Amino acid sequence: MNNLSRYRIGILEDDPMIAESLEDILETLGHQVLFSVNNGPDLLKKAEEEEVELLLLDIQVKGELDGVETAARLSGIKEVPYVFTTAFADDATLKRVKQTAPYGYVIKPYGIREIQAAIQVALLKLPKNQSISTTSKEEDHFFVKEEGRWIKVHFDALLYIEARGDYMLLREKEGTHLVYSTLKKILERLPARQFLQVHRSFIVNLDQVNGLEEQGLNIGTQHIPVSKSKEPELMKRLNLL
Asked: Among candidates 205, 190, 184, 95, which has minimal Cα distance to 134?
């Protein structure tokens, strides 16, 4: 049931069990959960800071802002499509929801099919001149700052990225770059179809993997560890017979 495209999604949900279940659903569908928060102000802060592409907002969250009020304030900060989730579908709630012009609405309890359908409908409602595709054909690179100058790094040339404290080692076919960043920030800029974080210290280019072994993989002659929690996703993403 995985989608052809993978999107970076944020969650507003104050019930820990529901939030965890929703994260599992989204990851099963192949999406990346950027963050999950339990109150409106934190959602607004995260949405502004992160390159989120879609939001799932619970309406009945506790605190100074419920989901509808959070969505209303979000429009003044950043244009991000959002889908409301709620256990209540009374007329008063629906009237408030309609005023914010959401991209979708899901009634609890929901399952994987309801969430998948809501996301697909939300994407269909995007204006034709707007796209939340993670990386277009034109976006095949980024620039990194190294020793005071900006250097273009093509995604296809990247073999893997390794965290070394506050610096990231970007290993290319023809050399390396050492840049000040975080794995999370770099992963958000890479095409999700091609790259996967397989360990707390490594992101790999799946197209460059040339071997698998117990608790690890090989890219060229380099052995890279794979966390137990990442093994199922890696197996799913590689074309195994």
From this structure: 190
CB-based contact 81:103 (threshold 8 Å): yes
CATH of 8-124, one of 3.40.50.2300, 3.30.260.10, 3.30.870.10, 3.30.40.10: 3.40.50.2300
Domain ranges of the chain: 8-124, 141-237
Q: Is the pTM above the cut of 0.85?
A: no
Among residues 43, 106, 36, which one has the least CA distance to residue 80? 43
**In tens digits, what is the pLDDT along the chain, a chain of 241 residues?**
444 467 889 999 999 999 999 999 998 888 889 999 999 999 999 998 888 889 999 998 988 899 989 988 887 777 888 999 988 767 777 777 777 778 888 988 899 999 999 888 887 776 544 444 444 344 688 888 777 777 888 999 999 999 998 889 999 988 899 988 888 888 888 888 889 999 999 999 999 999 998 789 999 989 999 999 888 888 888 877 6
